Structures are given as C-alpha cells and as structure tokens.
Amino acid sequence: MKTYTLTLDDLGNIETQNVETIFAQANGFMGVRASLPIQANDSLPGTFINGFYETHPIIYGENAYGYAKNHETMVKCFDLRTLELSVNGEVLSVLTERNLKLNLMTGILSETYLYETNLGQQIKLELESFTSHFNRTTYAQKIKITALNFSGEVHVKKEAKLLLPNSSKDFDPRVREASVNLQKQGNQYTTANSKLSLYTKFDEIDETFQLNPTQSFEFEQLNQISKENQFEIVSYERLKVEQVKIFDTFWSVSDIEIDGDETLQKGVRVNLYHLFNSAGRDGKTNFGAKGLTGEGYEGHYFWDTEMYLLPFFTHTQPEIAKSLLTYRLNILPQAKQRAKELGFAGALYAWRTQSGHETSAYYPAGTAQVHINADIAYALELYEKVTGDSAFIQSAKEIIYETARFWLSYGFMSQRGFEIHEVTGPDEYTALVNNNYYTNKMAQNNLRYAVRLAHTFKENQEEATFWQTAADKMYFGYDETSKITKQDDSFLDKQVWDFAHTPKENYPLLLHYHPMKIYKHQVLKQADTILAHMLFAEEKAQVARDFDFYEPLTTHDSSLSRAIHGVVASRLGRTQQAYDFFADSATMDLSDMQGNASHGIHAANMGGTWLGLIYGFAGLHIDNGELKIENHLPKQIKALRFNILYQGKLQSFELKNEKN
Ligand code: BGC
C-alpha cells in the first residue's frame, strides 16, 4: 500500500475547525468532518449527505417578481464521531495531545488523542476511519481505548447524534444555517419542508469494562446512511481492502508528481484527494462549493463545477465528469421553467442550487450571472473533445440547444452587433453591466456549439442560422486608445478603487463595504476577462496588456482567482509570477489563506491547482485533435509527471526543467 501522509505539521492553522475540514473524509455521497472524538466547544462535527437539504422560504424585505423563492440548505445531519467516555464516573475533559495522519493514498485517517479526567486519569484514544468508496452508505471506524495510568472502570457510549444548527454566527454571508427539524420515524428521518428522507442503520455501543494500565478495549463501528433504505453489510476489513484498491485506481491515473518542492507536492495531493472525495457520483447530485466538508455556501452547486472542477475530472476521471454533467441534464426542466418565469426562451440554469431551482436571494451577484449557461455548455464541449463520448453528448444536446435559445432571447441585435445586457460576469465586484466580455465570449461559444450539434444531428437547422448570426456578430468592447479589452461597456469609465488606503483587514471587501461602493469602482474580486483569455486563444500581446491592466485591480478575494492568473502568467512566460499564484493555490486551505477553511474546502481552487499545473506549467492543449504540451516549468520545479485520458487512452507525460 502506498502511503502519502498529511499531518497537523502540514497545516498553517491548526484551530480545531480548520483541522476538521482539511482532514474530512467523503465519498461523493457522504462527508464526515474530522471532528474531535470528545465533545468540545470549539469543535464543529458534521455529516453531510450530498443533495440532502432543507428548504425555507426566503424572506425579502422588498420582494419582486421572479425572485428566488426558497433557501436550500444542506443539512449537517448527524454526529457520527463523538464518544462519551468516563473513568470511574469521571468524564474525560482535558485534551492534552492530538495527532492526525491522513493517508491520502487510501483515504484512511488515523488519529491518536490523549485525554485526561479532572483527577488526572489518562486515556489514549486511537481511531481509524474512512467514508467507504466501496459501499458509499458507510462510515467505518475502528476505535481503541487504552488506560495509561490507572486501573478502573471505563464507560464508553457511542451513538450517532442528530445535530442541531449552531446558535450564533458572526456576520458572514458565505455561511448560513437552516434550522432543521428532522422528523424521525423508525430509522427514517425526513425534513419538514423539502420532504427529503434519509434512512439510517447505526451501530451503538454502551458498555463498561475494567482496564488496568496499558490495557485496551477495541471495537469497530459501521454507521450507515441511505436515501433508499438499502443497506449492504460488508465487514470493516473488507471495506478497508476495497477502499485501498479504489484509491489506488484513482491515483494510478490522477496523481501528479512534482520534483523539487515537497510542500507543493503535498498541497497538490491534498487537493486531488478532496476532489475525488466530494464529487457526486449518481447523476442526481453534484459538487458543492465546499464539497462535503463544511456548511459554507449551504452545500450549493455553482459554476465552480463546470469551469474549475470538470477539466480535472474530464481529463482523468471521465466517469465522474459524466455523472456531474448528467446532473445538469436532470435539472434541465427546472432551468427551462426558470427562463420562462423570467420571460425568456430556452433554459436558464440556477446560479446556486441543489434541486435545480434558483436559490440566490441576491440576484445581482446570483441569477444575473447568466454565464452559468455557457459554462455548462463549455464543459460539455470539453467533455466531448477529450473523451470522444458522442453518445453522451447526443443524450445531453438539449442542454446546448436550450441554452442557445436563451442567449438569442436574452441578447439582441443592435447596430454594434449582438449585445447581451444586464448581466454579471465572474467578477462579483462589478454587477449588472452590459456586454461583459467573458459572458459574450462564452455565449458565442455556446451558440457555435449549438450550431455544430444542429448540423451533426440534422435538426433545428432554421434556428441554427440565427444562432450562427448571433455568434458571428457578437459584440466585444475594446478601448482603442489604451488597447485594453473592456470587461464590460462601463468598466473603464469607473473610478479606480483606492487600494492605497484600504487596510489589509478590510479584505475581503465584501465583508466591509456596501455593494454600491464596490460596484462603482474599478476593482475585481476574481479573474474575469483573464479567465476568458485562459479559455480562448488570443494574441499574446493583448493578453499581456489585459493582464497588466486587470491583475493590479484584482483583490483575489475569491478563491477562484489566483489559479487562473497563474495559468495565464505561465502562458505569458512569466514563470515566477505563475509559480507564486500556483503556490498560493496549491496550499490555500493548508495555510488557511482565505481565513475560512473552517467553512469547508475551497473546492474550485483545488480544481484550479490542477489547471495551474496542467494548463499552466505543462501548457496542455488540444491542437488539431492531438494533445500537445508546452513546457512552462518554473525554476523551482525540476520535473512534472502526470497522465491524461484522451479519447479513452491513457497518455503519460513527463516534463523536465531544462534550467536545472
Ligand atoms: C465566487 C463565485 C463562486 C462562489 C462559490 C464566490 O465567492 O465569487 O465565483 O462561484 O464563491 O465558490
């Protein structure tokens, strides 16, 4: 068994809740935070089930037509980890030592804790656990309790507990908890509003036994949760053997080796580990912005999946890519309904959702990000190009047609060309603008893809001529004087944000300034035009000018920003800058750079790390149907090895740094 271990020494912030996120385990269906085994105030236990959410009506001070109606909040349902332990009636209350070792190559977590009672009786707790990828309903644990310095009666009680939402939270719009009232009937738990059910098969222990110094008591627990009330009994040892095999298969394709930088190597593997863990596998669920590791963003699925995660999955785990895209096909009816409700043709995908319905209560940075439609189309096209799986595209082509129909009805033809007004691009510090460059570029791509499919499948031919015209005449703003691509029609006319007088502690700006103040300035939260340049070939000198203009205006307050800048910097030959962005991306959650790893992993950034390495340093691209690479390795990295599954065939690449 290969080992590659993550320990507390690898973390920049070892506050309990951060640790619980980074060491969390998941299998696409269920995620379990690595919470402390003995209840503590600073611990935040949580088990999340992908797509299991409660709905609550959104209460607007001032409502308007078509606003999203319901919140959908992922339920932090059970605590599967906490033990109650006492020695001769004295509870264990003082934690004196903790060690966590996560074997990234197997997904198996080993933990050791030393606890004491107030009378000084010491107990060592050794835990081994994993969320089974073989039997996704199961969270498996092996627990060993050793008396260190006493003889006495040890009482252990361990049962799954229903979790209640936390009572208070600081102001942070990125986290929200629903008060969830799970109704229990037998082994069935049902949410009051969304009427979703889970079934459980929990293992419980409640025993007292006599221990002398160095003596131990060991037991296994298999806690199971199912949406279908179907449970398969598989032994702990068998699950463990299968877990190792499944991870081995994953790493045999998806691993990336970096020579020359151990910290980054570890960062990359941690990120790939989490990507493998939190991706929905059933076509009905997707990948939350925080995976299944925390309650940030309420478990919602965003464009993060299509633009940041799917390149990795498509190139190395196409089956997972397909199931994530199948989810979009399954929610197409909701997207069509939404477009209709807003008075447009075709389909408009929800900005943030689980059920497929829009749940963004703040439409300027939510629904208005209509680029989500084109992001999904882009991801489908990439999937087709890389896998050659045309059968799947045939089954999913309605997504492309319906999104193309939306563009045609949302945009309009003017003297300048085909314009798309009243949108918000990826940069959420600029809202409700006309002709956002990224959106127009992506919509153009979406329309062209629809035309290609219409020709291939000999259908919608008449509509296709309109799609073609709209794409060909798509309007892009450009400032002839400065020779800068306009992020949107008004961006260049705005006042520049006063960066010099913005104290460090006022970042992220969204927590310290009203949107009106932010929107009226030239200031970016994340890559926007630069992301478009990463995706579509553009003259290098133009990309360089735009990079030099937009990057200094970018706060990178969004974790989705740095990796993209890294890729583009690589392509511009700015290897040191590329390296710096990449290093930030690779270790973002390990160092808690964004200051909120406790809310859950930054999944999109983790996918961004893959982009930084493969699109950036290795310059991977498809040229005339062939995979090509370009060596942009920075001096710190001596060699890079990775695999790509292209058209069903595994290709291995090795790049060496000539300068070393
Ligand atoms: C970013 C969005 C992203 C969301 C979820 C926001 O901070 O601005 O682009 O989709 O986080 O990750």
TrEMBL record:
Segments forming domain Glycoside hydrolase family 65 central catalytic: 269-610
GO-annotated molecular function: carbohydrate binding; glycosyltransferase activity; hydrolase activity, hydrolyzing O-glycosyl compounds
Positions annotated as active site in the UniProt record: 428
N-terminal signal peptide: none
Superkingdom of origin: Bacteria
InterPro entries assigned to the protein according to its UniProt record, in alphabetical order: 6-hairpin_glycosidase_sf, 6hp_glycosidase-like_sf, Gal_mutarotase_sf_dom, GH65_N, Glyco_hydro_65_M, Glyco_hydro_65_N, Malt_Pase/Glycosyl_Hdrlase
Keyword Metal-binding attributed: no
Annotated SUPFAM superfamilies: Galactose mutarotase-like, Six-hairpin glycosidases
All residue ranges annotated as the Glycoside hydrolase family 65 N-terminal domain in the record: 17-242
Gene Ontology terms describing biological process: carbohydrate metabolic process
Keyword vocabulary terms for this entry: Glycosyltransferase, Hydrolase, Transferase
A Pfam family it matches: Glyco_hydro_65m
Binding-site positions, substrate: 303-304, 525-526
Family of the protein in this entry: Belongs to the glycosyl hydrolase 65 family.
PANTHER family: GLYCOSYL HYDROLASE-RELATED (PTHR11051), PROTEIN-GLUCOSYLGALACTOSYLHYDROXYLYSINE GLUCOSIDASE (PTHR11051:SF8)
Protein name: Glycoside hydrolase family 65 protein
Organism in which the protein naturally occurs: Lactococcus allomyrinae
Lineage start: Bacteria, Bacillati, Bacillota, Bacilli, Lactobacillales
